[in-house]
Amino acid sequence: MFLGKVASAIDKKGRWIISLTFLQSLFFILLAILFRRNQTFIGFAILMNLISNLTGNVIGLMKLPIIQQKVEEKNRRQALGIYQSIPTFIEPIGQALGVTYISMTHNYVAGSLINAGTFFISACLLFIYRQNFNVNEAEQQSEPTAKSTEKVRIIDGLRLFGKVTHLPTVHVVSATILVNALGSSIDGILTLYVLGHPYVSPFNFGFTILLINLTFVLGNVLGSVLVNDPLKHVDFKGMISLTATCLLLLYLVLFFNLGLFWILFISFSATYLTGKLNPQLSALMMANTDAKTISSVMGILTTVVMVAAPIGSVLFVGGYSIIGKNNTMRVCAVIAAAIILLLQSIPFFQEPES
């Protein structure tokens, strides 16, 4: 939420995006210098990485008004899908290569310089095309459904979330948080499951986990970039319901030990759907919010929804180790079913909006 306010308050966003990207490069140059003198700055490295990630989040929020103004409304969903799928595809590859290089060479200086170089190249490319990032916030007027003040409260952002999805605020926020809590724990649960049930896969543990992770990435990327598929007319309520259904099916597969094929198939389906959710929501928000408040609103929603991720990981992955696989699957399946019932009960409590 704070980062969203910071991003909204910054004028001349294109200039700041370039400057902050150069700053991220400087962070890792400084880290390389420190590692050159002493190899024990691991704590400082973690701090630098955290600061760099926070800076990256601010940059991402500042890019939203630029996309809002530069991309026509009919093309925003696909543009946002491509934009959001790039880190989903690149980050696991970069992390794997980085960890492999560091573990083989123990050369933290070179690792830091590689990071610095990638940020520097990115900043240079942004500088070359800087004219494309100029955004005139005064040109964009808020829609009648949007909050037009620069100061957006948490409740304003959540109410707008309900309004653009045509759902009661409490219902849609609760369902989104619960789905995110369940989804964030899947990776850890599957790791523990494969470790404890090696017979479900014909492959060894490492290759099985690699297949699962590749399935996650492929599903998310394809879901983000493929807009004109049979699901293009499904609304946000339908997407959340389908995602919860896939999670429910996955828990049943794990409960009954149905094998790797079904794990991969349902995992792909779930991540394909989640890959569509973020671009769809961002496009809806852009259509109903002005350029001055879009960063604040998305910052609020991201914070409120993402707070469920660590909670879900601790509760469900931790629960797997404490109360066992079957009991954890029962709890998760009940929550997934409750999400579906919560969303499907909405027509009984709310008149359809014209």
TrEMBL record:
Its main location: membrane. Pfam families: MFS_1. Signal peptide: none annotated. It is a multi-pass membrane protein. GO terms for cellular component: plasma membrane. One of its GO terms (molecular function) is transmembrane transporter activity. It is found in: Cell membrane. The chain crosses the membrane at residues 16-35, 41-61, 82-102, 108-129, 169-195, 207-227, 248-273, 293-317, 329-349. InterPro entries: MFS, MFS_trans_sf. PANTHER family: INTEGRAL MEMBRANE EFFLUX PROTEIN-RELATED, MAJOR FACILITATOR SUPERFAMILY ASSOCIATED DOMAIN-CONTAINING PROTEIN. This is Integral membrane protein. It comes from Fructobacillus pseudoficulneus.
